[in-house]
Every structure is written in structure tokens, then in C-alpha cells.
Design a protein that fits this description.
single chain, 240 residues, alpha/beta, seven-stranded mixed β-sheet, 9 helices
Amino acid sequence: MSVTTRYRDAWEGFWREAPDEQGAVFWDAEPALTVGVHLPLFEPHLAAPGLPFVDLGCGNGTQTRFLADRYPHVVGADLSAAALDHARHADRAGQASYRLIDAVEKNEAETLHAELGDANVYMRGVLHQCELDDRQPLVDGVAALVGERGRAFLVELAEAAGVVLRGLAQRPEGPPAKLAPVFRHGIAPGEVADDAVMEYLRSAGLTVFASGELPLVTTEYQGDGTRIELPSKWVVAGRG
């Protein structure tokens, strides 16, 4: 199984249209508010911190570059070639490497694992943007990447985020400017049941070592100037 052409084309269209500057995309928040908050939760559970680090669903590479400042071998991986063009353009120092990959396709995840060996994986907000039938294969792809020694850190929107997003989409004046392109390109986030993420991990043969709740910070603001934050849940998983 692999992602549909429609889905891939939607992401290509989104990233071709997206501006270059950091923060122009709805979820492209500053690393200090995203991966910088997540690493202290993740790092205590790393069985092998020296493993390669894969930022799966890296988009324009904002979080990838932050990881590359802290780890010697970081790979930004994404389904969209246009996203990777943004990432490479922003990474002028070549701190990370970048890889076009459909992680839903088992062979592609296994091929990357064969090249890197076991890896630690960071994945933020990717699962809920997948079509329903692709979610278990995506987590299976994560399991292939981590192998026996790696660990995965997943952050996904909580069910409660759906209420917030629907409210934003249905505003009389329309959705916020940075959220509108997401809907326009047909990649509106879907809801993932909170307990479904745990089931996907178990089915992939992964053990959950830690979990919790955090707001997922966006780059958009309410009319009163407060930043829009979406309820999310995080989990650290790997093979026991």
C-alpha cells in the first residue's frame, strides 16, 4: 500500500505555493516552542542517542535543522519533493540530509533503514494528516525505521483539537490566513481517536515507554492576539 496520487499531489501543490520564510505555514512554529519542548521528554528514553535521527514528515525542515544542531546525523524525510526543496534551500550549511520517502510504503521505510541502520524518529502531526487506511502502514514504517534500538517520539492532535479546528474553519470571516491553504489543497487534518494511536503502535510491535499531553503550537493567532494552540498528545515508543 502507498499513499494515493491525489494525496501526494495535494501536498506537492501546498508546498509549491508555500512561502519560503519560516513561520508562514500554519504548523511551522519556532523550534523552541516545538521540538525544543519535546526533546527533554524524548531524550531520557533514548537507548542509543548516537543513532541517526530521522525527522519524518519534515516539511520545510525547520525542526530538522534544530535537531541537526544537536545530533551528528539527521535526515529530514518527507513525501513531498517541493517540501524538501524548501528544506534544502533553508539549510544552506548542509547540516542535515534530506530524503524523499513514502513511509506508508513498507519497502521505502525498510530501504532507508538498510542504509541508516536503527534510527531515532521524530514525527510531529503527521498521522492525523494521513488518510485512514494509511495510518497503520505509516506507524509500521516508523517501526521499521527504529528497528531494535531506536526510539520514536510521536506528537499528534488530540480528539479535542477537532473542535478547535472546526471552529476556526467555520468562522464567518473564514479560516485564519495560514490555515486556509491547508483546506484549499484538500489536506484538512482528520481526527484520530486518542486510543487509536496506542493501538497502531501495539500493532506495529512497539512498546510505549512514556506519554503525555501538550499543546501543539501553531504560527497563527486569534483576533485578540493570543496564539492558536491545539490540544495534542505525545508518546515515546520503541521495542522493549
